[in-house]
Amino acid sequence: MRDGIRFGGRVWCAGLALIWASACGAPAENDLFKGSAGGSTSKAGEASAGSEVSGGAAPVAAGGKASAGNNDAAGGATAGSAMAGSAGMLGSAGAPATAADCKKACTNGTCEGAVCVITCDDAHPCAENVKCPAGVPCNVMCKSQGSCMSGVDCQDAESCTVQCGGTSSCSGNIACGGSSCEVVCEGQGSCMSELRCNAGECGLRCRGPGSCPGKVACGNDSSSCLIECSGQPSCQNSIESNASDETHVSCADGACPGQVKCGGASCSVSCNGQSCSGGVCCNASECNVSGVEDQCG
């Protein structure tokens, strides 16, 4: 498939639809990441039956074959952004979220159908921590320079997309949960602090120059984790995935100088050029590391 990657049973299509709104996040304390992530999964046991991951390929749900990954010349995955708020959205009663659910919950944004959209721009830069409402899908658009400076918290949303497009946007911690979460750090110097996903399916994409200098991690609650470090440079701290089923990490030349660690059933790490200088430690049942030696293999 030329325009997307099948990941975790979904097609994550190229291009993230920008939804325009005129609200910003309500004030909330920025107390994320007081706890620490769990340790890596050991290599004991067989890999999931039928699971197949190759270097540069995007991971898929356990039991299926990995589709061919499209890597750019620098080695960064070219897969586009995922859409938050797809099938499986849950309202407070367990049924799919509705527009009425969004109107009740989305007090600091506007509703596009069942999705709460929070836009942070020059008029509303969202200087306080942006907090997504619980139980409905949430899209956060940090579009202007320095917007979302106190970070984004969408840990209680059903699903979440965070777009950090402005220069130096999203300088605070970003944390997300729910069924799926995608964070795209496209602005120069965006996503300056820790970036952590505890959603079932995670896509963390550091594309802007100097983006993601803090730790980038997928937590123990994740089943699938995709981390793309294609900015020049990007991901200058450690990378860690404790996803249970599959992890795919792609580092462009000069990216990922800190250690890359992963566990779970399968892990694929693609190191291009002078990337991954801090080494790779794969503790997954099935490891596929290219470009450097696996220190834990």
Q: What do these coordinates show?
A:
- With 297 residues, the chain is mainly beta.
- It has one domain (20-25, 41-77, 90-297).
- The chain contains one helix and 20 strands.
- The protein has one helix at 99-105, and strands at residues 4-7, 10-13, 110-112, 115-120, 130-131, 138-142, 152-154, 160-164, 174-176, 180-185, 195-197, 201-206, 216-218, 224-229, 239-241, 246-251, 260-262, 266-271, 280-282, 286-290.
- The strands form three sheets. Strands 3-4-6-8-10-12-14-16-18-20 form a ten-stranded mixed β-sheet, with helices on one face. An eight-stranded parallel β-sheet has the order 5-7-9-11-13-15-17-19, with no helix packed on it. Strands 1-2 form a two-stranded antiparallel ribbon.
- A hairpin with a 2-residue loop joins strand 1 (4-7) and strand 2.
- The longest helix has 7 residues, at 99-105.
- It is flat and about 50 Å long.
Which consecutive residue ranges, at least 5 long each, have pLDDT under 50? 1-93
Kindly state the mean pLDDT as a whole number? 77
Helix content: under 10%
Number of strands: 20
N-end to C-end Cα span: 31 Å
What portion of residues belong to β-strands?
25-35%
Q: What would you report as the Rg, rounded to the nearest angstrom?
A: 18 Å
What's the tally of helices?
A: 1
* SSE topology string: EEHEEEEEEEEEEEEEEEEEE
Kindly report the spatial arrangement of strands forming the biggest sheet: 3-4-6-8-10-12-14-16-18-20
Instruction: Please identify the structural class as seen in this structure.
Output: mainly beta
Please, how many domains?
1
